[in-house]
Amino acid sequence: MEPLASDSDKYRSFLDAEEWRFGAPPNYDVVNKLFEEGRTKIWPPGSLEEEVQNLVKTWEMELFHKVRPEDMKTCDVKNFRISINGRKPLSLQEVAKIGGGYNNLLQTSLPEKLRCYDPAEETNDSSHKIFTTTFPRGFAVEILQVYSGPPVIVYKFRHWGYMEGPFKGHAPTAEKAEFIGIAIFELNHESKIVKVEFFYDRGELLAGLIKGGSSEDSTSEMPSGCPFSKTT
């Protein structure tokens, strides 16, 4: 693996594209500050852990912000597949059809009336608005441990942010919301990602977002049957 970094962002590369989903390249200054203040590990420069962490951050940036698959430099776009908690692997085109990054990562088999967040009802734009409103300082990620290096990278990660904005009918709590999971990245001979598998409990995140009381500032109401709701 070659180290990933750029002049414009010290943790991400490939901040160039013909078309950006939200009109311009993303700026990570605020979430980088959140990451540096809240991380539990500081990996040595050039270490496998640092390289994996930068790869994950760069891949997430491309998945969420680049419109054209051909602009994605971390992936073998033709052969790339991603699966969540053992569900059917999806291509980049299939991920786009279900509404992109958040909807893909928060897939669920819960009945519709029990969903605190329903990917089937959200678009790429609406999901982006929901989570950037809920986490105005962003949603940071760090690598906690790397169990194996390329071509099959297995690692433990932590995602976290502070709920400083409303979420689906619930008022902000200013508390930290986080979850921990395991991921597998499979790379080809060109060090391009061809397969991603994530394993985590989405309820670990969502439970932290519905602690607040009812909010009229949210973009929509939360279903009353949500299994994590205190009123159920």
How would the global form be characterised? globular
Please state the CA-atom Rg, rounded to the nearest Å: 17 Å
SSE ordering: HHEHHHEEEEH
Low-confidence parts: 217-232
What oligomeric state best describes the polypeptide chains here? single chain
Query: What can be said about the biggest beta sheet?
Result: 5 strands, mixed
Helix count, DSSP H or I runs of 4 or more residues: 6
How would you describe the overall organization of this protein?
With 232 residues, this protein is α+β, with helices and mostly antiparallel strands. Helices cover 24% and strands 19% of the residues. It is built from 6 helices and 5 strands, in the order ααβαααββββα. The protein has a 5-stranded mixed β-sheet. Strand 4 and strand 5 form a beta hairpin. It is globular. The protein starts with 28 loop residues before the first helix and ends in a 26-residue tail after the last helix. Residues 217-232 have low confidence and may be disordered.
